[in-house]
Amino acid sequence: MALALPTAQQKCDEARIKAWAKYVSCVDGVVAKDAKGVYSDWAVESAAFAKCRHTYFKNWTTLEKSASLLGSSCNLTDNRTNPPDPRYTDNGDQTVTDNLSGLVWEKKDNAGGIHDKDNWYTWSAGSPYKESGTAFTTFLTGAGTGLNVAGFAGANGWRLPTLAELQTIVLDFACTGAFGGAKCSCPSSPCVDPALDAANTQSDNYYWSATSDVRSPGIAWFVGFSNGVVGRYFETDDSYVRAVRGGW
User: 122, 163, 197, 241: which could form a disulfide with 211 (CB 3.0–4.6 Å)?
Assistant: First the structure.
């Protein structure tokens, strides 16, 4: 019995998974070089991360123009007669889905509650530097209001994004020189896609990722949305967070 031909959605899923694997491999390669001590300063390293992102983001243009993917979440409408499909979908429940990665992101607000853009959290409470800070004990699992206790947007799998994941909501920009230079700079600040509500995204500090630094206990990776910079800082310090769920 012959197998049925793959549907447009199955081909879309395959293409997205392959694109994601290449992107994560690129980010892991930069992190591995960092662990080896290859990078002399953060600007060169951030430029390397930016190149990984730029290459990954270009996949969306390819996918949403592919005739063989028409009708899938990669290409919802025929772009010969309709505007290009948006990469992000607002779900109407204070979450946004990235149709390239499959990740579902929390939208921040300024209402004073658990989603407030001004809330700061620690990554760790201190030695032995596990996930014991308020980002985990208050934001994600705090009694009554923690995202996974309250079942935010009907889900209980909310977490901090990995370093690779957190970089995918940075605005796209090409990077051919040192970070911050004329050929390597974010087009606006906050350096976040408008679908993620730039008005409620902080540009004066960084956002924690879930990725700790393999070389330094007590240090975790962050992304700064003032310009898309990537770096590391002390886990016991306060900073901003944005939750994510889903993905591959």
Answer: 163
